[in-house]
Design a protein that fits this description.
By secondary structure, the chain is an alpha/beta fold. The longest helix has 21 residues. The chain contains 14 helices and eight strands. α5 packs parallel to α10 and α10 packs across α14. The strands form two sheets. The chain has a six-stranded parallel beta sheet, sandwiched between helices. A two-stranded antiparallel ribbon has the order 6-7. The structure holds NADP nicotinamide-adenine-dinucleotide phosphate (NAP) and zinc ion (ZN).
C-alpha cells in the first residue's frame, strides 16, 4: 500500500456553525476582507460571517464584485482593496467563483501583482483564509486551487500552491437551500466528476479512492432528489458533505482531461462549470473503459452502475445538451490536449480520443 495524502483544512460542519464557532476567526487578526458575490446577501451566509466577526470585535470590508468564472482584473481589484483595508485575513463566502477568487486575492495582497499570475512562483506568504461555501460542488473550500479566466490563452487556468489551502472551511447546508435546481444539479455533477476523475488520476491512492467512494455514496444517494428538484435540508447536507469529500479527493489527486475539455465549453460558450463536466464525463468514461478496463472498472463499481446507465442518468439530470460543429470540436480537442490535466490521467488520452469524447457528447 502506498499513498501520500495531505489535508490541512479544519472542517467544521453543522447548522449555524459559523456563528456557533465565531471564536475560530479570532486568531486571524483585527481586520478581514470578505470576498463574495451577490447571492450571499440573500441566503444568510454573509450576515452570519459579519455577525461572527463583529462578536470578536473584528473589523471587515466587503468586496462583492466577483463574477462567475473570476477574472484576473477582479482579483487584482480585490487585492488592492485588501491592502487598502489593512486586511489581516480573507473570508470567502459563495460558490467556487468567490472561493477561488479569495485565494488569488489572499496571495496578491501579500505578494503584489507584478508578472503573470499564471506563471509566477506562489510563495508561502499568503493571507490566511476562511471559506464558507454556498454551493455544493467545487470543494474549493478544501483545495489548494484557484481557477481563473486566462484571456491570453483563451481558457481557464488553475493556479495551485500549498499556501492556497484555506485554514478553515465552514459547512452549513442552509446556505445552499436557495440554489435553483439547475445550479444544484450542475454543482452536484461537478462533485461527482471530481470523485470519478480523482479515481482515474495518476496520483490516486488507497486513501483518496476510499474518500472518492464515500463521496459518491452521498452524492448519488441524492440522485432522485436532484432529478425531482425537491431538495430537503437533509438532502442539501448530504450533497454538501459529498462535495467537500470530493474536494478532498482532488486536493490530493488533481483532475483529468474532463476538466480541461470542460474549460473550452465554459470559456467560449458560458456553459456552467459542472454542467460542462457532466456533458463530457460519460463519454470520457466509455473511452477509459475501452482503453484500460482494469483501471476503469473500479470506477463503475464505485458508481454502482455500468456505462450505459451512467450516461442515461446524467443525461436525465442535464436535459437537452448543447451542440457544436465539427471544426469547433477539433479546435477544442487540440486545446484540451495541451492541458496539463492530460498527463494527470492514468489512462493515456490522445487528441483523437478527446475529439471522440467531444463528438459523442456535444457533436452536432
Ligand atoms: P459559482 O460560479 O460560484 O456560482 C454560480 C452562480 O450561483 C452564481 O450566479 C452565484 O451568484 C450563484 N449562487 C452561489 N451560491 C448561491 C446560493 N446559495 N443561492 C443562490 N445562488 C447562488 O459556481 P460554482 O459551480 O460553485 O463554482 C464554479 C467555479 O469554481 C468555476 O470557476 C470553476 O472553475 C471553479 N472550480 C474550482 C475548483 C477548485 O478546486 N478550486 C474545483 C472545481 C471548480 P453570486 O456569485 O453572485 O453569489
Ligand atoms: Zn470542477
Amino acid at each position: 500500500m502506498e499513498f501520500n495524502f495531505y489535508m490541512p483544512v479544519r472542517i467544521v460542519a453543522g447548522e449555524n456553525c459559523v456563528r456557533k464557532n465565531a471564536a475560530l476567526f479570532a486568531p486571524f487578526g483585527r481586520s478581514a476582507l470578505i470576498v463574495t458575490g451577490k447571492s450571499s446577501a440573500r441566503n444568510g451566509s454573509l450576515a452570519d460571517v459579519q455577525a461572527a466577526l463583529a462578536s470578536n470585535g473584528q473589523a471587515y470590508a466587503v468586496y462583492d464584485q466577483i463574477p462567475p468564472n473570476p477574472t484576473v482584473g477582479s482579483v487584482e481589484e480585490g487585492a488592492r482593496i485588501a491592502r487598502e483595508a489593512g486586511a489581516s485575513f480573507v473570508v470567502a463566502v459563495g460558490g467556487g467563483s468567490p472561493m477561488d477568487a479569495a485565494k488569488a486575492i489572499a496571495m496578491l495582497a501579500r505578494q503584489g501583482s507584478e508578472g503573470s499570475i499564471f506563471t509566477r512562483a506562489i510563495g508561502a506568504d499568503v493571507l490566511p483564509m476562511v471559506h464558507v461555501p454556498t454551493t455544493a460542488g467545487t470543494g474549493s473550500e478544501v483545495t489548494p486551487y484557484a481557477i481563473l479566466n486566462n484571456d491570453e490563452k483563451q481558457t481557464k487556468t488553475s493556479i495551485s500552491a500549498p499556501s492556497l489551502f484555506p485554514k478553515i472551511a465552514f459547512l452549513d447546508a442552509r446556505y445552499t437551500q436557495s440554489l435553483p435546481r439547475s445550479e444544484t444539479v450542475n454543482t452536484a455533477v461537478d462533485a461527482i466528476s471530481h470523485a470519478v476523475e480523482g479515481m482515474l488520476s495518476v496520483r490516486a491512492g488507497t486513501l483518496s479512492d476510499a474518500v472518492a467512494r464515500e463521496s459518491l455514496h452521498w452524492l448519488l444517494g441524492e440522485y432522485d432528489a436532484l432529478r425531482g428538484g425537491e431538495l430537503s435540508p437533509r438532502s442539501r447536507q448530504n450533497l454538501l458533505y459529498g462535495a467537500t469529500l470530493a474536494g478532498i479527493v482532488i486536493a490530493n489527486t488533481g483532475t483529468t482531461p474532463v476538466h480541461g475539455m470542460g474549460y473550452c465549453l465554459t470559456y467560449f460558450h458560458g456553459v456552467p462549470h459542472g454542467r460542462a463536466n457532466g456533458l463530457l464525463l460519460p463519454a470520457f468514461l466509455r473511452v477509459c473503459l475501452r482503453k484500460d478496463e482494469a483501471r476503469t472498472a473500479p470506477v463503475f463499481a464505485a458508481l454502482g452502475m455500468g456505462p450505459a446507465e451512467f450516461s442515461d442518468r446524467i443525461a436525465a439530470l442535464l436535459g437537452a445538451r448543447e451542440t457544436y460543429d465539427d471544426a469547433t470540436l477539433h479546435d477544442y480537442a487540440r486545446r484540451a490536449a495541451a492541458n496539463k490535466n492530460v498527463r494527470n490521467c492514468a489512462v493515456l488520452m490522445e487528441e483523437g480520443d478527446l475529439y471522440g469524447v467531444f463528438r459523442s457528447s456535444v457533436g452536432a
